[in-house]
């Protein structure tokens, strides 16, 4: 097993009282709940003395995969249960200790010291990653217990993965900006007719924000979809949820448990859509997480929570939903859309009018549908709730205490990307919270595999409906981009400016099953047309409008 793969089931120890972590998106509540419900499991077997640790690329498939995933008939009780206790954070497992050379030598002479992995060597002073339950032993032997450290101390295997020239090694662990860029370049190079790497913006600290644009016979006339991760830069596992979608579309076996997408679904998506994969919206946060503190990196380099910075319900009436204080983990920024990362996402969305968007986060195990801000009222009937519910039930959390569900909110928020996308463009914009935070990489692989059915179900929904595709033209067949659809059978509360046509005169509407639409197509200078329709699949209709004179 590679040393970067942290053990799968170490026993948690006591929490460190002087640690005040900046918690991931799903907030302290879940952290506390997780600690409360912790189940103790067997000891840690693979954390070894680390001076001169080995990294065997040939062992890149972790043990549990070989034993219990591929063979399917293992004695491992995890296989029959399907779930494990909630080992969702690295800090459930490990602490960092600092000791002098002399202290380390004394421990080595003792012979039976607990396992320790070298995290950083400053010459006379060394920092080790040790099991949380062993921290008292180290304290008694004169080591200082540190309140945290850069994520690189948790996952020093990153350095070895970066030394490798193999794609599968880059994929086999958590990613930083550099390895992620290499992965995107590799996928684009391997699939030149399907994938292009596009730079969509620049962060506060001048780091590029990249997208992988995937389509067959790319044309801007096709409707666009988006899968993004890392609005919160520390939510490093979310990168892989996005990359997994790219790998499915490109037929790449990127993970030990990769599957191939059903051919008809893959063809449908590649032929009809342009899929934008943006694996890291907040590269400055990711850099901070890896190099400064494994508790930091949620916000951008200006200290702004990017998922509170979008204009819809920005600084709403509810002062629990975001904060005006730059010190807060939910600082909304000085004005709506103030941050370059937010603006890059908004510009891209306005240009491509995404039909569907996934914003991956960790680790509430929820598919959140808009509107999530308190006080914002959804159109009725509400296709967003229907869409989220139908895909959430496919997710597998691989946790004992929490399973995937659709929900409107976790806790009060405002200024989120999903609410802005839904309100501004009618995008089926979901915040998809994975099932773990930053667990051992072995457990991360499970979380990735458990998210995959959710992503696939969303694409299947696009293929099977119910939704409406209208093409509005004038009598000569020229598209009418100024057309809009008035849905009289729906009730609206937030002055949404959709459904309206795109530059190709196309209008897309998600529906609820058995919904009867009473609708009217309008365009300035043309006679309106009314129609009534019920559609339980993907219904494609053409309408010609005649000029008023
Ligand atoms: Zn988040």
Describe the structure.
This protein has 549 residues and is an alpha/beta fold. It has three domains: 27-154, no CATH class; 161-464, Zn peptidases (Aminopeptidase), CATH 3.40.630.10; 467-544, Carboxypeptidase-like, regulatory domain (Immunoglobulin-like), CATH 2.60.40.1120. 29% of the residues lie in helices and 20% in strands. The protein contains 16 helices and 18 strands. The chain has helices spanning 27-36, 63-70, 77-81, 101-110, 135-140, 151-154, 157-163, 167-171, 177-190, 237-249, 263-272, 283-291, 340-352, 383-392, 417-425, 441-464; strands at residues 94-100, 116-122, 125-131, 144-146, 195-202, 208-214, 223-229, 273-278, 356-362, 366-368, 405-407, 428-434, 467-473, 484-487, 506-510, 516-522, 529-534, 538-544. The strands form four sheets. An eight-stranded mixed β-sheet has the order 5-6-8-7-9-12-10-11, sandwiched between helices. It has a four-stranded antiparallel β-sheet with strand order 2-3-1-4. Strands 15-13-18 form a three-stranded mixed β-sheet. Helix 10 (237-249) packs across helix 16 and helix 14 (383-392) packs across helix 16 (441-464). The longest helix has 24 residues, at 441-464. Zinc ion is lined by residues 25, 232, 235, 361.
Notable characteristics:
alpha/beta; 549 residues; binds zinc ion; 16 helices; 4-stranded antiparallel beta sheet; disordered N terminus; Aminopeptidase; Immunoglobulin-like; 18 strands
Quick structural summary:
The protein has 16 helices and 18 strands.
What number is the mean pLDDT? Answer: 86
Structural class: alpha/beta
Q: Please identify, by name, the CATH architecture of the largest domain.
A: 3-Layer(aba) Sandwich
The number of distinct β-strands equals: 18
Bound molecules: zinc ion
């Amino acid at each position: 097993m590679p040393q970067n793969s942290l053990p799968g089931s170490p026993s948690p120890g006591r929490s460190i009282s002087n640690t005040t972590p900046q918690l991931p998106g799903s907030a302290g509540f879940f952290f506390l709940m997780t600690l409360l419900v912790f189940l103790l499991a067997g000891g840690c077997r693979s954390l070894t003395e680390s001076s001169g640790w080995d990294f065997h690329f040939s062992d890149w498939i972790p043990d549990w995969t070989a034993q219990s995933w591929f063979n399917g008939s293992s004695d491992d009780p995890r296989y029959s249960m399907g779930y494990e206790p909630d080992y969702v954070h690295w800090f459930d497992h490990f602490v960092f200790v600092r000791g002098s050379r002399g202290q380390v030598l004394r421990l080595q002479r003792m012979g039976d010291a607990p396992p320790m992995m070298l995290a950083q060597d400053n010459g006379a002073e060394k920092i080790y990653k040790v099991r949380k339950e062993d921290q008292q032993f180290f304290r008694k032997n004169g080591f200082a217990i540190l309140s945290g450290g850069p994520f690189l101390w948790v996952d020093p295997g990153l350095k070895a993965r970066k030394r490798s020239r193999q794609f599968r090694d880059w994929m086999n662990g958590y990613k930083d900006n550099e390895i992620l860029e290499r992965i995107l370049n590799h996928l684009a190079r391997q699939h030149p007719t399907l994938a292009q790497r596009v730079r969509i913006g620049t962060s506060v600290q001048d780091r590029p924000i990249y997208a992988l644009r995937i389509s067959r016979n790319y044309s801007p006339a096709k409707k666009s979809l988006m899968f993004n991760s890392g609005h919160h830069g520390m939510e490093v596992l979310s990168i892989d949820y996005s990359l997994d979608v790219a790998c499915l579309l490109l037929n790449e076996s990127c993970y030990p448990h990769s599957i191939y997408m059903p051919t008809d679904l893959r063809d449908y998506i590649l032929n009809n859509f342009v899929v934008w994969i943006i694996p890291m919206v907040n590269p400055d946060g990711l850099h901070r997480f890896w190099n400064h503190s494994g508790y930091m990196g949620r916000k951008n380099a200006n200290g702004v929570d990017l998922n509170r910075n979008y204009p819809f319900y920005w600084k709403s009436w509810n002062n629990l939903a975001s904060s005006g204080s730059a010190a807060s983990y939910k600082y909304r920024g000085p004005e709506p859309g103030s941050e370059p990362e937010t603006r890059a996402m908004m510009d891209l969305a306005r240009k491509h009018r995404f039909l569907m968007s996934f914003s991956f986060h960790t680790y509430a195990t929820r598919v959140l549908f808009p509107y999530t801000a308190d006080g914002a009222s959804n159109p009725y009937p509400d296709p967003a709730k229907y869409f989220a519910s139908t895909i959430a039930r496919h997710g597998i959390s691989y946790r004992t205490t929490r399973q995937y569900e659709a929900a409107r909110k976790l806790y009060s928020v405002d200024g989120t990307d999903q609410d802005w996308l839904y309100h501004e463009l009618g995008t089926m914009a979901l915040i998809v919270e994975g099932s773990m935070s930053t667990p051992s990489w072995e457990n991360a692989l499970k979380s990735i595999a458990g998210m995959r059915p959710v992503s696939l179900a969303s694409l299947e929904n696009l293929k099977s409906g119910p939704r409406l595709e209208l093409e509005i033209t004038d009598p000569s067949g020229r598209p009418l981009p100024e057309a809009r659809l008035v849905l009289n059978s729906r009730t609206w509360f937030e002055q949404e400016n959709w459904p309206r046509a795109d530059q190709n005169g196309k209008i897309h509407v998600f529906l609820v099953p058995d919904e009867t639409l009473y609708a009217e197509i309008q365009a300035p200078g043309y006679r309106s047309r009314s129609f009534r329709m019920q559609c339980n699949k993907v219904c494609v209709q053409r309408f010609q409008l005649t000029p008023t004179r």
